[in-house]
Amino acid sequence: MNYSFKNVLSAGLIAVMSASLLAACGNDKDAKPSPSGSPSASSATSADPQQKSDKPFNGQKLSIVTANHPWGDVIKTLAPQFEEKTGIKVDIQSFFEDQLTQKLTVQFTAGSKTPDVFMFRPMQDIKLFYKNGWVQAIDTYAKADEAYDFNDFSKTSISSTTVDGNLAGIPLITEQHILYYRKDLLEKAGIPVPKTMDELIAAAGKLHDPKNEVYGFVSRGQASPLVGQISSFIYSEGGEFMKDGNSIINAPEAVKGMSIYANLLKDYAPPGVLNMSWPQAIGVFAEGKAAFFADANSIYKNAIDPEKSKVADKVGYAQFPAGSAGSNPFNITSWGIAMNSQSGNKDAAWEFMKWATSKEIVLETQKKGNPGPRLSVWANPEGITAYPPELAQVTMETQKGGVDHSLPQVSNVSEARDIIGGIVQKAILGEDIQKAADQGHKEFQALIDNEKK
To answer: Per the record's keyword annotation, is Transmembrane included, yes or no (predicted)?
Structure first.
C-alpha cells in the first residue's frame, strides 16, 4: 500500500505526540501515592487530560460506614461537597456502636472489600483490627502531602491511632478527662476549685449532704465502664495497667489510684452507683444532686442542656486534679477513621479520609460540637464557638499533655475491663483492694500471656 509523504509525516507527528503524552502520564507529579509510594492505577487511566488533573477519581464509588454519632451526621450533610469536588460517589451507612463493631468484624473476617472506609474506636478495636490485618497502614498517604499538614494533629491523638509504629487510622473525635463541678455549691461553701486529688477528696466530703440529696462525687460505677475513668487516677499516681507486656495493676501506684476512685464512690456517691455508666452518672449531676463529676469533656452538653439539666447555668469545668505524680488524665482519640486493607479503591478511599480530616472539614464538624484533633482548629476562634469558654480553655490545656490511652492496650479489651473493673467494684463494696488487685493481676496477666501465643 502506498502512502503520500503528507500521510507519512502526519502519522509520524501523531506517534511523537502520543509518545510525549504517554511520557507525561508516566511522570505525573500530581499522581496520588499508594502505601508503597507508587502512583495509583486509578489516577493514570483517565482518557481526558483535563479530567485527569481535576478529578482523577471521577466515577469511582466508595462504601463508607460510620457510627450513629454526631460526627457522622455532619459528614453526611457535607458529603455532596466531596462528591462535587472529586467526582467520587459515596454511600454512607451508619450503625449503632455495638452493631458497627459486629458488622465490621463479620465482613473483615470474610475478607470483604467493603466498606472502603470506616469509623472505629481506637481504645476498643485498634489492636485487634490491626493484628488481624484488617486495617491498611496509611503512613505514606498521611505524610506525603504537605498541604494536609499531618503535624497539626495533637501528638496523643496520633499515638492513640498508631500500632507498632504504624499509623492505623486518622483521629476524628478526641476526649480529655476533666472535672465538672457545681459553681454555686463551691461559692456558697467558700471552697476553691480543687487542683489536687487531696483537695478534691476534702471538697467532696464537705459538700456531701445525702439528707438533702446532694452527694459529694459521682462517676461511673459499673465494672466495665469505670475502667476508662480510673485510668486517669492511676496515671496521676504514677501507675499504669501494664508495662513491657506485663500486668502491673497490683503495683502500689495503681492500687492507690484505684483506691482513691473507689473511696470517692464508696463514701460520697449516691445509692445505686454500682449500676451507673456515664449516662446515669451525668444524669445525677444534671439533676443537681452531685457537687463533682469526673468524666470526658465530650459529653458536656448533657450537663448544660436546659431541657436535660436543672443546673445548666451552674456548671464549671476544671483540669483533672493532680495526684502524687501530677495531673495525668487520659487525652485520647475516642473515634477514628480507617481504611479497609482489602479495599479495591485505596487511593480514592484516602481522598475521602484526607477530605474528612482536613482543617476545613474538622472546623465545620467541630463547630457542630464534635471535639476534633487539629490544634489549629482549637486555636481558631471559630473552632470553639460550640463550647463554653471555660471548657474550651480546659480542653486546650489538657491537650498539651495527658496519656494517649484510657484502657488496657490488649486485643481482648472487654475481658480486661471486666477483670480490672471487678477490682474497683470490690473496693467500693468495702473489700480489701490489695487482695482484689492481686487476684485481678493474675487474671490479667493470664490474658496478656494468652495473647502472646
So the answer is: no
